[in-house]
Amino acid sequence: MHNNAKTLVISNEASRNLAVKVAGELQLPLTDLETRTFADGERYHAFPHDISGMDIIIIGATHNDSSHQELIDLITGSRYWNARTVNVVVPYLGYSTMERAKPESGEIPKGVTRTRQIFRARPNFVAFTDLHSEAVLHAHAGEVRTRHIWTEKAALEKVKSLGIEDIVLVSPDFGFSKRVARMASILNCPHTAADKDRYDADQTIVGQISGVVRGKTAVVCDDMIRTGGSMLQTVDRCYEAGARDVSVMSTHLVLAGDARKKFKERGISRIIGADTFPGIESDDLCDLYSVSSLMADELRRFMPSLNG
């Protein structure tokens, strides 16, 4: 058994529920920091005991500015109080779709610049979950070990447990089609991709879908659902191509604005997703699977101390 006294699992407020599961997988308790909010909105954090010489594990999504800053504070605080190592898992990386700027646009590629802020806080290890682009993995000078946690294993186990027959996996664009093809090979089912064109930050047009979905259950797959625009268009194209039924699967269920309402109005009764985005839980629409075991496995690979 590993030395519990030398490893501390903490999280930012947003990812506490997931951190409890990861800690359980590692047979460690989740340690809550002392926190409070001052009258002017500033936040206080303190470790409950001396962490000098300890291995710190931090679980922290960065879906908004507050959670991003809290993660930075936890990393730098661990360094300030002389932690031996600082090991970070980011369930959901905010601004992950903004990993590059168009030439001469003046845009700030916040997917890269904010990830650099995480790296510059000097963690030893950072793992990201189902990134929109792996470009952010390289937004450092080589001093940080990075990993990309792919969730296909947990996602496909979830799909198999649902007993859906005559499945065709569908990608809403060709950029995601390689991953969909990989999942389809594991499920031993056909797959296809739509032709998506983005003409604004949150605006897309989805073209036709192959007739391979005719008479079958199409499962539209993507890495995240933000407003649901391209997913819903893909759902429509699947029905137009003769699909008997359509389900939706995505790792990160952001579901911004009235996305949930739009999916229900389209007749979608189930959205399969991971427990990576803060605040999303299983309910009458969302059917979640947990990625906690995948995160724990990745931490064990990088931290030999967790293996005894």
What are the salient characteristics of this protein?
single chain, 308 residues, alpha/beta, Rossmann fold, 2 domains, six-stranded parallel beta sheet, five-stranded parallel beta sheet, globular
Q: Short summary of the structure?
A:
The chain is α/β, with parallel strands linked by helices and 308 residues long. It is 29% helix and 25% strand.
Please explain how this structure is put together:
This protein has 308 residues and is of the alpha/beta class. It has two domains: 163 residues, Rossmann fold (3-Layer(aba) Sandwich); 138 residues, Rossmann fold, CATH 3.40.50.2020. The chain is built from eight helices and 15 strands. A six-stranded parallel beta sheet has the order 9-8-12-13-14-15, sandwiched between helices. Helix 7 links the parallel strand 13 and strand 14. Helix 1 packs across helix 8. It starts with 6 loop residues before the first strand and ends in a 6-residue tail after the last helix. About 2% of the residues have low confidence.
SSE arrangement:
Elements: E1 7-11, H1 16-25, E2 34-37, E3 43-46, E4 55-59, H2 65-80, E5 85-90, H3 110-120, E6 125-129, E7 145-149, H4 152-162, E8 167-171, H5 177-187, E9 191-193, E10 196-200, E11 203-206, E12 217-225, H6 229-240, E13 245-253, H7 259-265, E14 271-274, E15 286-289, H8 292-302
Parallel strand pairs: 1-4, 4-5, 5-6, 6-7, 8-9, 8-12, 12-13, 13-14, 14-15
Antiparallel strand pairs: 2-3, 10-11
Helix pairs in contact: 1-8
Q: CATH architecture of the largest domain, please? A: 3-Layer(aba) Sandwich
Largest sheet: 6 strands, parallel
Under the CATH scheme, which class of the largest domain? Answer: Alpha Beta
Spatial strand order of the main sheet: 9-8-12-13-14-15
**Total of domains:** 2
- Uncertain stretches: 198-202
Order of helices and strands: EHEEEHEHEEHEHEEEEHEHEEH
Q: Rg, please?
A: 20 Å
Tell me the helix content. 25-40%
What is the overall silhouette? globular
Strand segment count: 15
The fraction of residues assigned to DSSP E strands is 25-35%
- The helix tally amounts to 8
What gap, in angstroms, lies between the N and C termini? 5 Å
| Topology-level CATH name of the largest domain | Rossmann fold
Looking at the chains present, what oligomeric state does this protein adopt?
Answer: single chain
Return the structural class.
alpha/beta
